[in-house]
Amino acid sequence: MHALAQEQLRLDAGPVDYLLLALYFVFVLGIGYLARRSVSTSLDFFLSGRSLPAWVTGLAFIAANLGAIEIIGMSANGAQYGMPTMHYFWIGAIPAMLFLGVVMMPFYYGSKVRSVPEFMLRRFGKPAHLVNALSFAAAQLLIAGVNLFLLASIVNVLLGWPLWVSVIVAAAIVLSYTGLGGLSAAIYNEVLQFFVIVAALLPLTVVGLAKVGGWSGLVDKVTTQSGANELSAWPGNELTGFGSNFLSVLGIVFGLGFVLAFGYWTTNFVEVQRAMASKSMSAAQRTPIIGAFPKMLIPFLVIIPGMIAAVSVQEMTVFKQRGTGDVDYNDALLLLMRDLLPNGMLGIALAGLLASFMAGMAANLSSFNTVFTYDIWQSYVVPGRSDGYYLRMGRWVTLGATAAAVGTAFIASGYSNLMDYLQQLFSLFNAPLFATFILGMFWRRMTPTAGWLGLVTGTGASLTVFLLAENGVLELPGQGASFLGAGAAFVVDIAVSVAVSTVTRPKPAAELVGLVYGLTPKEDRTASTTGEDAGWYRRPGVLAGIVLVMVVLLNIVFG
């Protein structure tokens, strides 16, 4: 955020705004303190003792993803590309979330693993487990750094606090409640943060639409200033960087909708951890499906304000048309808040922004400390200690991860649109993991050697595409390089895994029960429909069907 002009973005926060912020922080720390009383084992700290109801884990599932990157990054995408940004939600999230709930959660929850890498350990053995644990840990530190950098930059710009003070205060508050109460503190705070974020963004969207003359006024202004292509989601050429409509649609459906989205939502432990904290198999399956309902509507709270800023805020309009000025697309939401919100409302909006950054960073920290403690420290460095030792270790790891995030924050500072950076990370870390997962879950012949070799070569393929695009060999503006990198990672991973599996020895079938679809009895992957899980509205398949119909309708209406 080096290009931010301080005086342009400074918000005129008054005493009432600071009071609202202070109240919010009291609540956040109070939740951490109360959650600590329920932490007596490492399972309590890392997975909430598997005791939470589906509606809590469902909202936390979405709030964990509703971090700084989602809100600032998606409003930046809205300002830059318009309606094609909807694909990140309706194509690039919902189908994968439904697949996770209906197909994959029974394996995660039923096998009682404590993390996604632990599932890899049981399916493929130690080499694949170690590769997955290390790559996931690295990704979480990089993404936590993005959240921390954005949070500190925005506090610095909006309120005038020095950057180093903002970084330390933000990191200390997140560290306090995740260090105290573990995953329960993170999850209950995510539920609180979800409502605070909606309370902040809904008025901003409504007031913004009123300013530009309603939906029809926004349509007229976007058409005049940027062209009608920003008003329909398909084919989304500007977003993908492809000139051909066919290639653009293929890139969105296969690169984003299949490889990147399924890779992120089905194998990313940040999300899966929330569902694993549920009290039953049915609740675990419903977690991502319940989360899909608000996920469908969030674009209206982040993308539409970005589009409004692009046509109504003078500095943003100049930047979009000429590519010059002291602001960039990441500032779209802040500029709109500055222009539209009075005191009081400003305090709620600030709390919403801070909540989103803290939710994202807390999610990164709580998943990192689980994977590092269980899958790296306990498995390879110091095995065989007491449960109390690993509980204490988890708290120290949280402290270390927070310090590391302060360091990785500065890597993010070189990107004018942080979604470019984030999609690149996902194509590197998540796409090859998804290929290994999906093949290993449905093909019993896949071998342990293929598990780790596929991961390494898939990551290498994505990295190659990234380097070729960075050096100008591949001309792919927008987020086309990450879509292509994700596709390359997936195809190479599958090809290598199949080839290696034909010449190496698979695990015996008896060892794969509960890990491979065809070898797991139907009753072991079917949720209960009695007691607390009774009622048609608690059936994962029925809920998923309702969501799917709604998403198809949204694509037709805004396509």
Explain what you see.
The protein has helices at residues 6-9, 15-36, 42-47, 54-65, 68-81, 87-90, 94-110, 116-124, 126-159, 163-211, 214-225, 237-240, 245-267, 269-276, 281-297, 299-312, 314-322, 332-340, 345-381, 387-408, 418-442, 448-470, 480-501, 540-558. It has one domain (15-558): Sodium/glucose cotransporter, CATH 1.20.1730.10. The protein has 559 residues and is an all-alpha fold. It starts with 5 loop residues before the first helix and ends with a helix. The longest helix is centred in the middle third of the chain and has 49 residues, at 163-211. The chain is built from 24 helices and no strands. Helix content is 74%, strand content 0%.
Please outline the major beta sheet. none
Annotated CATH architecture: Up-down Bundle
Number of domain units: 1
The structural class is mainly alpha
Shape verdict: globular
CA-to-CA gap between the ends? 33 Å
Total beta-strand segments: 0
Order of helices and strands: HHHHHHHHHHHHHHHHHHHHHHHH
What is the multimeric organization of the chains shown? single chain
Integer average pLDDT: 79
| CATH-level-4 superfamily name | Sodium/glucose cotransporter
- Estimated helix fraction: over 70%
What's the CATH class, please?
Mainly Alpha
Radius of gyration: 23 Å
| Weakly predicted, low-confidence segments | 1-5
CATH topology: Sodium/glucose cotransporter
| Strand residue percentage | under 5%
Count of helical segments? 24
GO cellular component, one term: plasma membrane
Protein name: Na+/galactose cotransporter
Keywords: Membrane, Transmembrane, Transmembrane helix
GO molecular function, one term: D-glucose:sodium symporter activity
